Fold these 2 entries.
Entry 1:
Amino acid sequence: MGDHDRERRGGGKEALVEAFSAFGSDALRDVWLFDQRDHEELYLRDDVARKIADIDVPRFVDNERYGYVTRDTYSDLYYADYEYTVRGFDGFEQFRTFLADGEEKVGVFASFDCRDGGYDFGALDATVSEVVADYPIEAFEPG
């Protein structure tokens, strides 16, 4: 792989983290990529790193992989396309979507501290789509 290809691969991940950071500012807690086999931490705030030090991160990511199944189910059952999922926890909200190019899909999830008024996750999804459009899907593969 040439240097230009390597830069584009790393550049896609950096651009993705920048998009999440611009959206959430200091409220951004973490950003993770995953596919069917692997996962990669792109950003982890120090206080969150301490909180998850004793949890089974691969098991947590495995739970997010169920999104591949539910995404396909939604495609089969609904008249609208799946875009993203948001989960609310005490203290934070988690956003998950899939970066797709045809049949190839890479999942991404990020969490944000709760805040009054919540977040415009539709705007975040649109921003993530813009970032993904600038890079080949391989630029986001975890590992």
Entry 2:
Amino acid sequence: MPISMSLEYLLLYFPLVISVSLVVGGTRHERADLVLVQAQRTFVWITTFMLVSYAVLQFASWMV
């Protein structure tokens, strides 16, 4: 049984991750350019982690 997610939940993901990334960048740096670079890195890290977690869960659901 494949794991599915509605589009509404996926659309809520982006503002949440963007705001978290900006807060993390803002707490590490004060200059705007460094904040945006850190926010981009954090966004990529969180998104990669979530995609890998989804892939593992999807794979595990196929094994059952």
